[in-house]
Amino acid sequence: MEPSSALLIGMGAAAAGFAGAGVGIGYIFGKMIEAVARQPEAEARVGKYVWIGFALVETIALYGIAMALLIGLRVFK
Amino acid sequence: MTRELENPLHHFELHPIVPLELFGMDVSINKAVILMWCVCAGMMGIFYVATQGRRIIPTRIQSTVEMLVEFLRDMVLDTMGEKGLKLLPFLTALFFFILLSNLLGLVPGSYTVTSQVAVTGFFAVTVYLISVVVGLYYHGFHYFSIFSPPGTPRWLVPAMVPIEIISQLARPFTLALRLFINMTVGHMMISVFLGLAMWSMFALFPLVGLSVALYGLEVFIACIQAYIFTILACVYIGEAIRLH
Lengths: 77, 244
Prior knowledge:
The complex is a heterodimer.
Chain A: H1 3-15, H2 18-38, H3 43-72
Helix pairs in contact in A: 1-3, 2-3
Chain B: E1 21-22, E2 25-26, H1 31-51, H2 60-80, H3 88-104, H4 117-139, H5 157-199, H6 204-242
Antiparallel strand pairs in B: 1-2
């Protein structure tokens, strides 16, 4: 297999990791909506953690992009 | 027919404007240095304007800065208790520096200081060393009991300690990597999509629209990442103070 085509396959495989981040972000906001629906007074307290959780999950997706770009830019010969 | 996309890392290259050298190390003045000066000047300017006069009924800038400092103070009291208030000036400076440097990097033509892993790595290692020093200061060598969480049975401790050591040592790494990757990849995505828009007239409007949306997301992420860095710093130092 030529290096350039293996490179593209590697980039695609690394970028497929976003799926987990999408599930994670959907899950956390869904749980927030559920929690607020059960007890509206809890919105301020729970809402603080939602943004922390969102940033942490988003970072994992960005690790995926970073790996894809590292592979594509031939950092790993 | 293939076309070359512009290398997305092109924006992050630093070229010396005023070459300086100190004991063989390259300390030339480049865009990152000038941006760091701008961030420091911005911070000093904001706090100077906010504290001028110190009225009882605050002006708008004083009120905004007061809200932010109070927000940080509540965060410190939540995670670290009363003993953490000694570290509030450091954490306020850290938060404002990261926030301003993230936001100033979004101005077209300027450079994001925190997109260099050297800068974020230095902040993360500093925060971690502060947590270790604070833990040793308050608890002496008993600080090392954090490696075996309370309640583990005796026979499990030799297995827990290496795992806990690794998870502790991973903290400065993930702290540095998180901020660096968020800032770098955000700008890279915008440059990749605008590069694609340059090469395909067919999909011009959707791609430019997507880039504008990504730009807005970047502003939001800039603020959130500053907050996340600071709150994780508070949690790590608070864990060293409370030993659990």
